Amino acid sequence: MELSTRITNITGGGSDGWDVFYKARRMIAAGTDVTELTIGEHDIRTHPDILDAMYGAAVGGHTGYAEVPGTESLRAAVAARIAWHTGMATSPNNILITPGGQAALFAAHNAVCNHGDTALFIDPYYATYPGTIRGVGAVPKAIVTKPDTLFQPTGAAITAVAKGAKSLLINTPNNPTGIVYSRETLNDIAKACIDHDLWLISDEVYDTQVWEGTHISPRTLPGMAERTLVIGSMSKSHAMTGSRVGWICGPCHVITHLANLATHTTYGVPGYIQDAAEFAIGQGADVEEAVAAPFRRRRTLTLKALEGQNVIRAVPAQGAMYVMLDIRGTGMGGDTFADSLLDAEHIAVMPGESFGKAAAGHIRVAMTIDDDNYIAALNRLISFAHSRAQ
Ligand code: PMP
Questions:
Q1: How far apart are CA 267 and CA 93, in angstroms?
Q2: Atom of ligand 1 at shortest distance to CA of 241?
Q3: Which residues have CB under 6 Å of ligand 1?
Q4: What is the C-alpha separation between 348 and 351, in angstroms, rounded?
Q5: Which atom of ligand 1 has the smallest separation from the CA of 245?
Q6: Distance 390 CA to ligand 1 centre (A)
Q7: Ligand 1 atom with minimal separation from the 104 CA
Q8: Ligand 1 mean position to 310 CA, how many Å?
Q9: What are the C-alpha distances in Å from 194 to residues 139, 228, 231, 251, 287?
């Protein structure tokens, strides 16, 4: 029996660039002590107070079907948080609660793309982007950025491929590069979207992890609110990756249609999870800052560890829980470097090639283990690079 090409094509065939990751997992299963600096998962767990709120809500009876678009009170809390962060009026009717940011990315593309439409995204990119686009029957098209312009897309590059495209997906602060888009870049993006009538899907799940400068949500730029769908999540801001709770913020009429989609797909997010998310947001920005603090600290430690040598250079990033390192000075590609590092030092990092063409010759290091072990691993990585440099 044949399956739909929509589902069999999600991965696009070929290697998905996660070979090193899976090899590391196999080594761990076989008993090898591997230091994993691969995926975006905090080394702390969800705060016990949030779990208490979750338990209290469940014991209190919020275990039945919850309102499909999200509880009115969580939608209001998310809207108020967005209004506070961005200064832009936002109502609960602008918000759909989703089972995490990933489901929000899928729903957003489903909302704006017809079968066969071109959906643009920026390379380097978070690994699921092309598959998410293929999953809704659209055709992914990458806009390749360059290391020497700090991986920021230009209006000209978007314009060059915009003809006939339906949407553009951006991510700032960015995974994998850690780059935070400048106001100039966002103005260029906004102009290109308006000129070419593109929907903008703005993935802002790292909005609490900004180490320098400020995060600007493109929804706040003139003429953009009516064409922007913002993707948000509790995963990174509150160490709630496993709770699967996020949102889409967009124009009310789009949210109404997205609620119909949710009725026919997820049927909403568990009520006790939503209550826990509402409690967590209610704890305010200090809690978000505390969850982000270890990454801010480790980024400073990383830059210090890299001083006084130039075989490895850090991409001068301003946000997110990763550092991207330029390892072209070793003469190796990111794939070979990551694979050899795993074999020689039992340290697992992601090759830049896992995130598209633009990050070839780089590796992404997730700063997601305790400081001492992190710095020890980083120093071994630096020595390894020097031993292999030609
Ligand atoms: N967008 C980006 C850029 C991410 O890095 C991630 C998770 N790593 C997500 C979206 C999805 O996160 P979640 O589904 O846990 O909210």
A1: 17
A2: 15
A3: 40, 100-102, 126, 171, 175, 203, 205, 233, 235, 241, 246
A4: 9
A5: 16
A6: 37
A7: 14
A8: 32
A9: 21, 11, 20, 16, 37
Distance (Å) from CA 42 to ligand 1 centroid: 13
- 275 C-alpha to ligand 1 centroid (Å): 21
- Strand locations in 173-216, DSSP E? 199-203
pLDDT digits (tens, 9 = 90+) for 19-58: 899 999 999 999 999 999 999 899 999 999 999 999 999 9
**How far does residue 10's CA lie from ligand 1's centre (Å)?**
17
Cα 205 to ligand 1 centre (Å):
6
DSSP run (H or E) holding 171: strand 165-171
Q: What DSSP line would sit under 261-286, residue for residue?
A: HHHTTT----HHHHHHHHHHHHT-HH
> Which tokens is 7 given?
């589902």
Relative to the CA of 101, which ligand 1 atom is closest? Answer: 16
- Give distance in angstroms: CA of 203 to centre of ligand 1: 8
CA-to-CA distance for 382 and 158, rounded, in angstroms? 36
**How confident is the model over 322-338, as pLDDT tens digits?**
999 999 999 999 999 99
Distance between CA atoms of 170 and 183, rounded to whole angstroms? 14
Q: Both tokens of residue 140?
A: 């992914």
**pTM tops 0.85:** yes
Cα–Cα nearest to 382, from 297, 325, 300, 333:
325
Q: At what angle do helices 252-263 and 100-112 cross, to 10 degrees?
A: 110
Q: Which of 133, 202, 235, 295 to mutate to test the pocket of ligand 1 (most atoms within 8 A of CB)?
A: 235
Name residues whose C-beta falls within 8 Å of residue 52's C-beta, 6 or more positions apart in sequence. none
In the block, tokens 């598209």 appear at 356
Length of the chain: 390
Q: Please state the atom number of ligand 1 nearest to the C-alpha of residue 246.
A: 16
198: phi > 0 → left, psi -120 to 50 → alpha, else beta; which? beta
Cα–Cα distance for residue pair 385/382, rounded to 1 Å: 5
Predicted confidence (pLDDT) per residue in 243-301, tens digit: 999 999 999 999 999 999 999 999 999 999 999 999 999 999 999 999 999 999 999 99
Percent helix, strand and coil across the chain, each rounded to 5?
45, 15, 35
